[in-house]
DNA sequence: CTGTATCCCCTCAGATACTG
DNA sequence: CAGTATCTGAGGGGATACAG
């Protein structure tokens, strides 16, 4: 499996390439939430308690640029923006499910204990 | 899906937990190579042309500490050390296959071109 | 409401040198 | 052959302030 270049970066294998597209702390959580319904910026923000304003904004921009979500702006005041998952984005969902299932099993094996769910607002 | 703590770090979901165990540039490539045969340190080194001495060493240590590989030292001169995948490590293989397949598809869609395979030694 | 711009820290990963 | 230690750089991600 020879190396290859994308966006000026050298990759060694397809896994590395994939994880650069959908990895990081927030991309999968966002796609996961968009899997069944379009959401507004503020809805996503509310649904991802720990994400910062800056991260949500920049990650959405990346996901849009690489075709995993689309962005629809309503010219109203105050602004309204909806994010929708694309076909390409939908193809990430089963990948997330596999990793998620594996992670859940690992957690059990490692005896991970939850912190006692801060449900609504936290931080 | 409430948050939880492991090893003093706060996680938001199982995916994040999983990727902290098997993510990064080198963990999956190493497990992938060990999937069918045990390998010596130097064999792994040879098979992963871009990895540095330090990274191979430290990543193997982490994989061992979390039960994905075992390490067998032969008390000979010069030293001989063999790494073998564990049952837990084997359960990572299908996860890698899924990500790998997805990454390969993405690469095609993105029109990624290979750099003209430096095959054996490089760098 | 949605979004950008700064500043800053911390961790991953590479380069290099040294050891049993 | 296998492994550790030190230094360094790049970038992901957080806090905060400002703007249309």
Set down the secondary structure blueprint.
Two copies of one chain form a homodimer.
Chain A: E1 4-6, E2 9-11, H1 14-22, H2 27-34, E3 39-40, H3 41-47, H4 53-65, E4 69-74, E5 80-85, H5 87-90, H6 93-109, E6 113-114
The structure holds a DNA duplex (20 and 20 nucleotides).
Characterization of the model:
The structure is a homodimer of 123-residue chains. Chain A has 123 residues and is of the alpha+beta class. Chain A has a single domain, classed as Arc Repressor Mutant, subunit A, CATH 1.10.10.10. Chain A is 47% helix and 18% strand. Chain A has 6 helices and 6 strands. The first copy, chain A, has a 3-stranded antiparallel beta sheet with strand order 3-5-4. A two-stranded antiparallel sheet of chain A has the order 1-2. In chain A, β1 and β2 form a beta hairpin. The longest helix of chain A has 17 residues. In chain A, 27% of the residues are buried. β1 of chain A pairs antiparallel with β6 of chain B, so a sheet runs across the interface. The structure holds a DNA duplex (20 and 20 nucleotides).
